[in-house]
Write a structure and sequence with these properties.
The chain is an alpha+beta fold. It is 42% helix and 27% strand. It has one domain: CheC-like (Chemotaxis protein chec, 3-Layer(aba) Sandwich), CATH 3.40.1550.10. It starts with 7 loop residues before the first helix and ends with a helix.
């Protein structure tokens, strides 16, 4: 299956998966932070994994990435990207909510990574739950990993590792407005289906 062979109905189905997943993620974050979380209408696109770099900015920009592996009827890998500054803003919100009174500057890096992993895991699980509801299936999710590096380096690893198992990526790009916080927080979810997984999803959604 190449990019040209996807029908408009199939692409719309993937965008709907992205929309539902992003909505679930906003709801889950709202519960986690005990704040209202509004979300821009997300942009969802299905692209070749080797063209991922074209969808991002400066390859030298520092980013944070949380990644998980999902096994089940729909097998895939998922990654949650954020600019490093946005990632740390989310971490500050979570830690301030869970441990009020703690001086944010005194928080050690390993605690920050733990909080970032928790946020990323919630967001990625929300996307998987959206797929499972649509498919009527179940999944198991791996322990999340976290990485800090330049955008170009992380994308290169994605293409070299995941490109061996799948050729397509669903990119969901959105901006979150958290409660009374003035600064918007943006993030990107990248879903990398295994070979055959998209066909299973399309069949379940009756668009194959």
């Amino acid at each position: 299956m190449d990019m040209e062979s996807f029908s408009n109905m199939q692409l719309d189905a993937m965008r709907e998966v992205g929309n539902i997943g992003a909505g679930n993620a906003a709801t889950a974050l709202s519960v986690m932070l005990s704040r209202a979380v509004d979300m821009d209408v997300p942009k969802a696109e299905l692209v070749s994994i080797y063209e991922l770099a074209e969808y991002y900015g400066d390859p030298l920009a520092p980013v944070s990435a949380v990644f998980v592996r999902s096994e089940g009827e729909f097998t895939c890998s998922l990654i949650f990207f954020q600019d490093e500054e946005d990632a740390q803003s989310l971490v500050d919100l979570l830690i301030s909510h869970q441990m009020s009174g703690m001086v944010l500057e005194d928080i050690p890096p390993e605690m920050r990574d733990s909080a970032l992993t928790e946020v990323g895991n919630i967001i990625l699980s929300s996307f998987l739950n959206a797929i499972n509801v649509l498919m009527g299936g179940t999944h198991s999710i791996s322990v999340p990993g976290v990485a800090h590096d330049m955008m170009g380096s992380i994308l290169q690893v994605i293409a070299s590792i995941f490109g061996q198992t799948g050729e397509y990526a669903l990119i969901v790009d959105t901006t979150l407005k958290v409660g009374d916080i003035e600064k918007n927080v943006s993030g990107k979810v990248v879903m990398l289906p295994d070979p055959g997984s998209l066909e299973i999803l399309f069949r379940k959604l009756q668009v194959l």
